[in-house]
Amino acid sequence: MRAVLFVVCAFIAGGLGFAGWRYARGDLPFFSRSATGGAAGLANRTIAPGDLASAREAVEAQLRDVPEYETFFSRLHETFPADYAQVIDTFADQLANGGAGPAADAYLSEAYRVLRQSRGIVASKAGPEALGRVFETQAAVLKALGEVDPHLCVDFLYGGATQSYYDFSTNHRSLADMVLAGLDAIVEGQAKKIERPRPSDADFQALEQALAAKGLSQAEIDALIDGKTPNPPIEDARMCALGQIDFDVLKSLPEDQRLRIYGLAVELMARS
Q1: Predicted confidence (pLDDT) per residue in 55-97, tens digit
Q2: Which pTM does this prediction carry?
Q3: Higher pLDDT, 103 or 59
Q4: CA distances in angstroms from 63 to 26, 44, 48, 182, listed in the order given
Q5: 83 within some domain
Q6: Would you say residue 124 lies in a domain?
Q7: Could you give the CA distance from residue 48 to residue 55 in angstroms, rounded to a whole number?
């Protein structure tokens, strides 16, 4: 079990998952997008107090301003209309009661949270390609973060969400790919219902050995797997690189081992 903890940490707490949790808790700040459309579009619309219908229209119009996000929300509406309505109504209620409109990224974060909690567990039953895509897109976001700022990359790994992260999410729509991959895995898992056994100790040992073969020290492996902080701490650039190595190593494992670990990681994510 210990060897999957880092995967779960990165997948659950990092990025949009963490942002969605912060929104649900009530401390995710609203912020405006400087580009055309986005939150600025809502600021120019007058919503009468209590007018939920107009508020819903405003929210959906904002999403149409961001084509990459519209793809996800159109598919969510098609496949899970109740979940779609829950997300739209959450923000429509905010608008109809005098609240400010958030940036479109906040909608994606909330949708990710709702979908993960309501249906995320069935993603573990998807086929190899769809399940692998979940982790490939996560790794792509991690790589993009590392190229922007290694510290931001480490924040993502361990669930931190700074203003720099929100600036990144505004300008990097690879996040939409990550969430769409999760939705696709849920849809396929619900259809295929592939049952996989739990990873064995041998699976976890294979992961640790593969990390060691990449030149990682025991302290670095422990930092990845158990979240331990060595003394002295690992520098941000190296820690970010370790996270990317971990995803690469997982992908290189034999398919049966890889899919067992992927499946458990997704299942634990949904139960968190």
Answers
A1: 889 888 888 887 878 888 999 999 999 999 988 998 888 888 8
A2: 0.79
A3: 59
A4: 22, 15, 20, 19
A5: yes
A6: yes
A7: 9
From residue 272, alpha-carbon distances to 11, 13, 69, 76, 263 in Å are 11, 10, 25, 22, 14
Asked if omega into 232 is within 30° of 0 (cis), the reply is yes
Which string of DSSP letters, residue by residue, matches 126-169? S-HHHHHHHHHHHHHHHHHHHHH-HHHHHHHHTT---HHHHHHH
Asked if residue 235 belongs to a domain, the reply is: no
Tokens representing residue 38 in the block: 């986005």
Residue-number span of the structural domain to which 184 is assigned? 11-134+164-192
Count up the domains in the chain and report the number. 1
In a domain, 179, yes or no: yes
Q: Please enumerate in sequence order all residues whose Cβ is within 8 A of that of 70, keeping only pairs 6 or more positions apart, or say none.
A: 63, 64
Question: Looking at residue 8, what is its pLDDT?
Answer: 46
